[in-house]
Each structure stands twice: as C-alpha cells, then as structure tokens.
C-alpha cells in the first residue's frame, strides 16, 4: 500500500480521510492539535507544526506522496521532499505562487487572466496615498485565512483598518454573481472539471450564504468562466485539485478572485451530489488512478454550519434533531468540541431535482439550526 | 459528545466509521487485529477479544452506547452492560436468538413466520437417520459464518459432510429468487424499510453473484416479502438495523432464510444509491436521531470483490486502474493487506437509471478485476 501524508488535520482532512477508506492506502497526518477533526481517522497521526521545516521534512521523507488541506505550510520542506522524489501534490511552486496574494495577482496578470485591477502597498502610508483608487479591498499578502486579513477601504476614514505590511489593494468590483469552479488535474496532466457553483446571497428573502449547483448563469458567461478557470489551472503545470473563485459583473465580465490549490468549501456538495467527490478525486490523483466522473447526480445546495455570534465553548447543535428529519439533506458535523463565533462547525448538502425544494430546505436549515455553547 | 463502541473491526466497522465522521460522536472499537480494516478509523482502538466476557465488559462499561458488526460476541457481557444502563443496540436478547441457528428457526416458527421446514440433529447418527428428509441443508447451530458451517446433504453419501453437534437440518427449498430486505428500527420503535434487493446468479450469461436494487419481483411477492420481513423484525422488540434474507419459490411462496441484526453485505449499495445509507442509519439509531430516508436516488448493482482461488499473500488488484475509469462505479477496497481464496476484499456499487447499463458494467468489473497475490 502507498503511504500518503496530509499536512493539516481540519475538516478538509477529515473528509479526505473518509474518502481514503475506499482505497488501499496508508494515511499519515501532520497536525498540531491532537483533537483536530481529522486526527483520529488516519493510520498514523504525527503531532507537529505544518509551518516548521523539520516537522514537515521528517513527516514526509518516507512517504510516497504528500498533499495539503491548507496553504499555510512550510514550502521549503516540500521543495526538499520533492527533490528527493516524494510526490508533492500540488507542486510546491504552486503553493509559493498562491499563498502570497501579491504573487498570486502577478500570476494572473502574467498569464492574461482577467482579475480586478490592483496595486501593492507596503505600509499604511502607501495605502493612504492611494485614495484615488478607493473604494478598494485591502488584502494582506501572507497569512490571511477564512475572512481574516481582508478589509474593505471605502474612503480615507477606513485607511486605519488597512494592513501595515505587504498587501494587495484591489479595486472594488461591482459583483453581480459569485461563482466557483473546481478542476482536477491528474499526474499525467489529464483534466476533469466540475460544474460551476454559485454563492447565493439573497437579502430580500433573508437567505444568506449558501451555494447552488449548477450555477444559475448564462451559457455565454459559463463558457467564459470555464475558459478562464482552465487557463488559471493549466498554467500551474501541477497535478492536484483547484478551486477557482470568480466574479461575474453586471456587464457579464468574468474575473478571477482567488484560487485554492486544494479541496475547498465550494466543493463540499460533490460528496453526495456528484459521482466522484472532490475528496475521492484527490485520492485518484495521489494514487495515480484515472480521474473520476465530475457530473452531478442531482442539483444541490450546500450551506455551512457556523458558530453563532455570542457563543464560545462546548458546542451544542440546537434544532439539529428536528432538521435531521428533512429528506435528502446530508449533515456533516466536523466533531469540533468547541464553538466560537463564525467557526465552521459543519455543512449540509441538500440534493433534489427541484430548485424550489432545494431553496426551501436550505432556508429551513439556515433558520432552524444554531450552534451555541452549553453555558 | 456521546461515546459509542463497536464490537469488531472488519469492513462493516470500517464503513460504519466512515459514516460516523458526519456526526459529533466519539468512537471506540474492540478488535483482536490491530491492522483490521476499521482499526485506524476510530478515536480509541482497544485490542481485545470480542468473545471474551471481561474484554467486552471493560470495553463497554464507560460507553453511552454499543453496537456490533458481527454476531459472534460475548452476549453475557452485553447483558451485564445493558443492566447497568449502557444502550446495547441491538438488544442482547436478539443476538441470543439469532446467533444460534436452532433458536433462530424456533423464533420464526413461534411467530408464524414462513421458513423452510426443519428439524434438529445433535450428532452425525441423528443426521443419518433422517434420510427421508433429504435433500436438505445441514447448518451448524453456532459458529458458522460467511458460508462456513453449511453443507448440502443430497443423499446418504453426503452424511459424513454433516456436523457432529447441534445443527439445523432444513428441507432444501426450490428457490426461484433470493432477495433481502434491510429494516431500521429506532430507539422509540419507529421503522424505516429499504427497498428489497435481489441476489442475481445468471449462469447463462456467466453473470454471477451480484445484487440488484430494486429487486425484480412481482408486486404481490413484494408485499408478501415486506410483511414477512416486518413481522420478523418487529417481534425482536429491539432498535437496530436488520437484514432479512428471503427465498421466493417458483410458486410465489416467500420464506425467511436468515436474519442478521446488523449492517450487512446486502446493504452496501445504500452508501451511494440511497439517501441514507445503512451505515448512516446506524448512527441515527445509536445517537437517537430521526431515521433517514431509505429511498433510492437511482437503481443500483453491487458486487463483492473476492480473493481469487489459488492466491494467498499480499493483495494486488489486477485490472483495477482500467476499471476505475468506468463512470458511475464506486469502488470500496477494505485495505486488507492479505488476500486468500474467497476473502471479501472490497465491493463495487454501480448506479444508473438503465438496468442494461448496470448489468453491462457489473459484468465488465466481474471479469476485469482479479485479486491475486504478489508472489
């Protein structure tokens, strides 16, 4: 059996390991937290810091292949491992490009990939000088994650919220729709594309933050998005799975927002709604099997289960039992003991032929479930 | 989080634990073999003998609930645990009835459940005296598993193949079709029934040993089978999941063959082909959640991947990579290092609207995949 390691043991690692148990593979996880969601689901758990050179190098040196569930890892160690013949998927060069938002932006422009116009700032003073560029989004080049490290700068009054270090200042784009495309690349360069998904924010219905598949976009926009996402992924020249987040403007322009070179929140629905899930696909890539079928079995909606504002402590899922009665809804709770405001505690995928049915059930779950703390 | 234990760490345990990772639950496994398919997928692996009183009692005494993946466990210990307030699912009384084939048969007749007529033998001499009852099937009362402990006695010449201990001698039934029904019973007695599956043995097409869902049987037969399976399960008065295997005779008679009070080979297709799989369902029962939706997303075929005759040693899956290209086929390899003739090494489920497509792909996999050994 091949020995394959994952850097990071969060929910993405957890779902990767659920899928791994369909294949003959010996699994390793490197992660600081021995109670992380994925820690108990591997053959070999190694406690250690994924950002530390020695920890990553020693973890990887006897493995056949290694992958990530988060970008914030020691890339130097991965480069050393790659040189020594360990299959590193995605290639460390991709991580280097993507994990720094300045070099990620440069990558898009270097390859003529449409993206919001931007400039770099190195400190607050430089940010303040760019008032002609406002309204804009200020994004810290390194270390941001899950909403952290991003600030909207509407005008001069917002400047103090900016970052006093290398950052990308991006023109605020008029976004009509937000979509994402997952693309898998095999070890021989073969490619499989999942149907586009759409992030839905419907404020009038108080339907917030869920994701619809297939995306409700015009065919012309769809082809444009697919071509852009493909160009983005192909130029990395690396096997792996990639999530390309895209903005569609009211004028039908398509711009790349961000790319993640790993399994991603916008692919969670593929577990039940598609023949080969993003997690299954990663094992097919790592084990050098043929890519899976990315088609949908049925349309789907996916929503995240988030820790409620004002609650920190031992997690309690209020309303869960009632909602588990909903047919065709698949709950994934990540087994995190502690909740805190905004923490991703799980997700739900609903599958159905009928869009009305999907939206109705998503709304019911959105309003019926609260992750609070015991005290 | 509730603490739940499983007795046994084989492939059924493995798939139970894959499903467990969707819920907030702390998992425990008791199993002799530290390299068993489920050993690495739980929070706490305890090495020990599931047939030993102390091992089972000590394993279970601090758990909230305990279940099984094989019947051959220490029932006395489970009874002690149940008295002390541990939820034992299924109830130990069910295990006592089922694991002894003589008492299982008595259970059917006591509850007017149709089953092949039978008598008991205590030794070979008693078997020899029953020649008027031949052709018959001789089944050892305790300890048989997966085909072991069963002999067909066509005539006197076969008598030496019989068992010299308490056994059931069952009239050989003319079987036209073999079907199975999975039934889930919640902690409050609520019931959910999966559609019937059919075991297909088509010798003319050389299509052997696969399972079709839904079963291809007449509606009248279906209702009869469902009523019989329900009667079988309801009279146990126990929560749990149950597989009822049934024979349909050429005259349309339906007879119970055997019942298993646990997840079962004939429910594997539910992982991809049904909204709530048999494994998901067990966690819903154990955690006292509402039962899941047993309906099929699509029709399916399931076939077992079996160690090839003549090969013992480190397993190699010849033909696997080519077959992994087949769309809509889901492979489950149990990660057993060693193959031997007839050993269950994995299974494949194919889902499709078209029966022809299902059968064609099943046949392709059946003939394209060989589990052999390296040497």
Automatic annotation (TrEMBL), chains A, B:
EC numbers, comma separated: 6.3.4.18
Name of the protein in its database record: N5-carboxyaminoimidazole ribonucleotide synthase
UniProt keyword list: ATP-binding, Ligase, Nucleotide-binding, Purine biosynthesis
Family: Belongs to the PurK/PurT family.
UniProt organism field: Niabella pedocola
Reactions accelerated catalytically: 5-amino-1-(5-phospho-beta-D-ribosyl)imidazole + hydrogencarbonate + ATP = 5-carboxyamino-1-(5-phospho-D-ribosyl)imidazole + ADP + phosphate + 2 H(+)
NCBIfam families: PRK06019.1-5, purK
Annotated positions binding ATP: 101, 139, 170-173, 178, 257-258
UniProt key word Nucleotide-binding: yes
HAMAP family listed in its UniProt record: PurK (MF_01928)
Function: Catalyzes the ATP-dependent conversion of 5-aminoimidazole ribonucleotide (AIR) and HCO(3)(-) to N5-carboxyaminoimidazole ribonucleotide (N5-CAIR). Catalyzes the ATP-dependent conversion of 5-aminoimidazole ribonucleotide (AIR) and HCO(3)- to N5-carboxyaminoimidazole ribonucleotide (N5-CAIR).
Sequence ranges assigned to domain ATP-grasp in this UniProt record: 105-287
Pathway: Purine metabolism; IMP biosynthesis via de novo pathway; 5-amino-1-(5-phospho-D-ribosyl)imidazole-4-carboxylate from 5-amino-1-(5-phospho-D-ribosyl)imidazole (N5-CAIR route): step 1/2
Self-association state and partner proteins as the record states: Homodimer.
Name of encoding gene: purK
Gene Ontology MF: a single term: 5-(carboxyamino)imidazole ribonucleotide synthase activity
């Amino acid at each position: 059996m091949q020995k394959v390691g994952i850097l990071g043991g969060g929910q993405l690692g957890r779902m990767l390991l659920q899928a791994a148990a369909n294949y003959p593979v010996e699994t390793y996880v490197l992660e600081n937290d021995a109670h992380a969601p994925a820690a108990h689901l591997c053959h070999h758990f190694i406690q250690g810091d994924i950002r530390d050179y020695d920890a990553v190098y020693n973890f990887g040196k006897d493995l056949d292949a290694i992958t990530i569930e988060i970008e914030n890892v020691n890339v130097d160690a991965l480069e050393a491992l790659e040189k020594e013949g360990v299959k590193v998927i995605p290639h460390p060069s991709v991580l280097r490009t993507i994990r720094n938002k300045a070099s990620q932006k440069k990558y898009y422009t270097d390859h003529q990939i449409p993206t919001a116009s931007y400039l770099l700032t190195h400190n607050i003073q430089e940010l303040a000088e760019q008032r002609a560029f406002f309204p804009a989004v200020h994004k810290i080049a390194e270390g941001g994650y899950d909403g952290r490290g991003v600030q909207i700068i509407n005008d001069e009054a917002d400047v103090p919220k900016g970052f006093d270090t290398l950052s990308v200042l991006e023109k605020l784009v008029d976004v009509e729709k937000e979509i994402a495309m997952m693309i898998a690349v095999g070890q021989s360069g073969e490619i499989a594309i999942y149907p586009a998904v759409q992030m839905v924010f419907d404020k009038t219905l108080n339907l917030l933050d869920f994701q619809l598949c297939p995306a409700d976009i015009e065919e012309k926009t769809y082809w444009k998005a697919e071509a852009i996402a493909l160009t983005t992924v192909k130029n990395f020249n690396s096997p792996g799975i990639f999530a390309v987040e895209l903005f569609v403007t009211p004028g039908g322009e398509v711009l790349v927002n961000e790319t993640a070179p790993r399994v991603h929140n916008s692919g969670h629905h593929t577990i039940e709604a598609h023949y080969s899930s993003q997690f299954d696909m990663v094992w097919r890539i790592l084990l050098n099997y043929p890519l899976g079928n990315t088609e949908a079995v049925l349309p789907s909606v996916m929503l995240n289960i988030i820790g409620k504002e004002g609650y920190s402590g031992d997690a309690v899922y209020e309303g869960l039992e009632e909602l588990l009665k909903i047919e065709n809804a698949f709950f994934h709770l990540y087994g995190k003991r502690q909740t805190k405001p905004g923490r991703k505690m799980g997700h739900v995928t609903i599958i159905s032929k009928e869009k009305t049915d999907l939206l109705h059930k998503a709304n019911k779950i959105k309003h019926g479930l609260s992750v609070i703390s015991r005290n």
